Amino acid sequence: MATQAETQPKAVDSGRRPYRFAAEQFWRMIDAGIIPDDVDVELVAGRIYRMTKHEPHNFAVGRLAESLRSMVPQGLYVREEKSMSHDQRTILEPDVAVARGDLKDFRPSPPATSEAALIVEVCASTRTADYRDKVRLYASAGVPLYWVVDVDGRKIDAFSEPQGSGREAGYARQATFLEGQAAAVVLDGREVGRIDAKDLLPPIEPPHES
């Protein structure tokens, strides 16, 4: 039998509601120094998240960006841990993105996620964000290829064929590439190279001898 507490609806305080920020407010806080330049943050659905990055994550990001820069064709360029606009309440900072355009061209505003040919997140301690929230966000933006480099799982998960919108957005195809299995880098329908997870991940430390 259900108790009285279980059957009662959750109380909602009409005088206490979470405040969500707009992208314009987010940029103003950065410009005003409220959010320091050296703090990595993202705005997701109006909420500000601070990101903590450890060395395994940093190693993988650096190696991946280096690999992609050696293979991207003209008309595309690599952005490493740089902001990208998404909608009026979301500003993301992908670990690595291949955007359309030219690095030499100055733009007063960051490119949109919809302008990316490939976005990659390095998953070290952000599994829910990378495998659930950002799958939806990048799919809804029509990003054709989304990778998650899983540091703990030592693999690359490649998502392709975006479909749907909003909370129903996702990718129709997912492929997993373990160490030793190179994932194809396909940009705008053209394979430009392959990347193996083993070339991105830090070495596994051998157990300490007692």
TrEMBL record:
One Pfam family linked to the record: Uma2
Parts forming coiled coils: none
Entry's transmembrane regions: none
Residues making up the signal peptide according to the UniProt record: none
A single GO molecular function term of this UniProt record: endonuclease activity
Naturally occurring in which organism (per UniProt): Paludisphaera mucosa
SUPFAM superfamilies reported in the protein's UniProt record: Restriction endonuclease-like (SSF52980)
Putative restriction endonuclease domain segment(s): 24-180
Entry keywords, A to Z: Endonuclease, Hydrolase, Nuclease
Protein name: Uma2 family endonuclease
